[in-house]
Amino acid sequence: MTSQVRGGQLARLLGQWHALPGRRRSPDYAALAAAVRGLLADGRLPLGVRLPAERELAEALRISRTTVTAAYRELRESGHLTSRRGAGSWTMLPGGHRVASSGLWTPQDDLDMIDLGIAALAAPPELIPATRAATEDLPRYLGSAGYHPTGIIELREAIARSYAERGLPTSPEQIMVTNGTQHALDLVLRLALAPASSVLVESPTYPNALAALAARRARIATHGLAVDAGWDAELLLGSIRQSRPRLAYLIPDFQNPTGHLMPAELRERVVGAAHAAGTDLVVDESFVDLPLDGTPLPPPTATFDRHSRVITIGGMSKPYWGGLRIGWVRASAPQVQRLAAARIGVDMSSPVLDQLVAVHLLAEASTIVTARRTQLARQRDALLAALAERLPQWRVAVPRGGVTLWAELDGPVSSALARAAEEVGVRLAPGPRFGLDGTLERFLRLPFTLPAADLVDAVHRIAAVRYDLDRAGRPQWREPSVIA
């Protein structure tokens, strides 16, 4: 799937790219090439995208075409650009270097480790009484076989009501209960995505979504998110219109890992562009229940859908508990029936007892989720304060919701820092796990789901190893850790 970035778009991404004045000033062409390499390393400029013609970029940047020609030549020599005469130039990385996103589990829990790889909270106190109440409800289901491919009606009604409360009328027939949000995504991909189909995702994005797409042998293109601003509307809409992907996977509500919130106007435009391009949108709402600081939520993306192009997935892992494997799909009733038919060959249905527990937890949503938001805001602020004190060189945009910070480091050391931090008892999720092809080495995801004291302790340990990183010994290979 090939898309093209126009001259004005690339100029906006480049920003203040000029070489700094001084006795050691580098030529403008070298500064321009370095700026493009920086965009590629950060994931803001996707791989495999066609750059503007030399004349077009020169006009957009108001520089000579000779400077652009020399910059493109340097990018080709460094392996960041490939060109064909008369066809254009495409972005790439040197030597075909790739870093896979596996999201694998370690074989056992390490209780002495401060685990910042998992962005999820411990169970709420309401879980125990909800479980007791569910066992009392269970007998009325014991007279049947217990298979409910779309979910028990009580839970589907509760989920449908939660959408209606957000301004999106939904019937239980539009809901299918799944074994978590990841299971929901996998089922949607089985139904909507043929092998080798084209898919557009954000960069960075959720690693396990990339793993699911890789399992379907999808051809993945990316839309890079800015640290502060999030989505570039012109580039995102242009990517959909130009490349016409079969499917786009987006996280508009407190995006994982950046925490960005997509504005309502862009949601509407994305849905319109997807309809025009024949693209299905899979919208992941895993964090929609967790706005912080009173942040108002835009309407659900599916609000703007008039052609059954939006399939919404969500679940209880983030606002409630990851150990309760309850997720769901919201789609048109015919799509839900097709999903249920596809599910029969996978796992038949979700456990009835777990679904009954979910019903009781959702009945207490206002109490549970309000407490979660207060807890997360307090822990986020503690993490931000510790970073400002111990690692002031790092740049962090304060998220208005969700459970993670996306930190821009003071160098491309994310993977090395993760290895070093493990030596002092901190497990990290390095930036490349959230992107493709070895990009995002200057970034690190830091969840604020642990107690404040643990977060502050973790930052102190990270800061200590960061300052010694340049003198570190040979890397130690370890089992991959879970990122959730």
CA radius of gyration is 23 Å
How far is it from the N-terminal to the C-terminal residue, by CA? 28 Å
Ranges with pLDDT <50 over ≥5 residues?
A: 96-109, 472-477
Residue fraction in strands: 5-15%
**SS-based class:** alpha/beta
Residue-averaged pLDDT, rounded? 90
Write down the overall geometry: globular
Q: In which range does the helix fraction lie?
A: 25-40%
* Main sheet strand line-up: 4-10-9-8-7-5-6
What is the makeup of the main sheet?
7 strands, mixed
The ordered H/E elements are: HHHHEEEHHEHEHEHEHEEEHHHEEHEEEH
Total DSSP helices: 15
Secondary structure tally: strands: 15
Describe this structure in words.
There is one protein chain. By secondary structure, this protein is of the alpha/beta class. The protein has 15 helices and 15 strands. A seven-stranded mixed beta sheet has the order 4-10-9-8-7-5-6, with helices on both faces. Helix 2 packs across helix 4, helix 3 crosses helix 4 and helix 9 runs parallel beside helix 10. 47% of the residues are buried. About 4% of the residues have low confidence.
